[in-house]
Amino acid sequence: MAQGIRSLLRWRPVWALLLIAGMAVGFRLYTTTTAEARIAPPLKEAMTHASVFPRVLIRLDFTPEDFHIKYLQRYGMIGGVHKNMIFLLNVKKEDVAELSKIYWIRSIELPQS
After folding, report:
1. Half-sphere exposure of 53 (CA within 13 A, CB side)
2. pLDDT at 3 > cutoff 70
3. Residue 56 banded pLDDT, cuts 50, 70, 90
4. CATH classification (class only), 39-109
């Protein structure tokens, strides 16, 4: 058994496959463990009471391009874009949790009125 595993690990494609699988698992762990930090504390508190948010502010570290705006439309209607901020309308609580797993989002907040 051990001899068979050793001979299998001598193949470069096996090492490449293990490396790619490790990177995928590592990326998933990173996005999952950092997701909660992206949600602002007032929004976390509001998530315990509300199931839909009329307006959510998404902050990025860069100016969003067309791809980012279209991607975020899965989670709510675009209410506007200003510099590095995107306003999403009618966002469900579950979608806020999913948004927080997107690595290029810096923070998710409730906008100030």
Report:
1. 28
2. no
3. very high
4. alpha beta
> Containing H/E element for 102?
none
Could you tell me the two tokens for 90? 């009618």
3-state secondary structure of 112: coil
* 84: helix, strand or coil: coil
Q: Please check whether residue 64 is in contact with residue 81, taking contact to mean a CB–CB distance below 8 angstroms.
A: yes
Q: What is the pTM of this model?
A: 0.80
Rounded to whole angstroms, how far apart are CA atoms 53 and 39? 13
Q: Percent of the chain beyond pLDDT 90? A: 75
Which residues in 62-98 are b (16+ Cβ under 10 Å) and which e? eebeeebeeebeebbebbeeeeebbbbeebeeebbee
Q: What are phi and psi of 91, to 5 degrees?
A: -95, 130
